[in-house]
Write a structure and sequence with these properties.
- The structure is a single chain.
- The protein is α+β, with helices and mostly antiparallel strands.
- The strands form three sheets. Strands 1-8-4-5 form a four-stranded antiparallel sheet, with no helix packed on it. It has a four-stranded antiparallel sheet with strand order 6-3-9-10, with no helix packed on it.
- A hairpin with a 2-residue loop joins strand 4 and strand 5.
- The relative contact order is 0.28.
Length: 124
Amino acid sequence: MKSSSLRVIAMFCLCGLIVACHKNDDNNGCTATANTQTAPAGGNIIYTAKALGNNSKINSVTYYGASGSVTVNNPTSPWQLLIPVQKGGTISISVSGVADTVLAGYTYLDSNGANPIAEAAQCR
């Protein structure tokens, strides 16, 4: 009886050890943040976010809009937004996701559609 109990306990310990040591090969969570800029003139910003890989997803996108920082939770990838910006406005985006690669970026164009400023960042 004592021998059977010890075997059962040993099996539970061994199973627990196997589960605890199992490496998770799923996608990694990370945050990509593009360099912040100041709009040199009034114009438009195109913000973009993307999660690449199997079973990838964007958890959140935080960007700077006319009223300040805005967070969008669980947007569909790829995500894109076009918004106006005033001279001196902050241009900033950060994307958090679970993916092989998370991409965050923006393109600024002045009101004539010229003088682009583009920034991008990624994490793995």
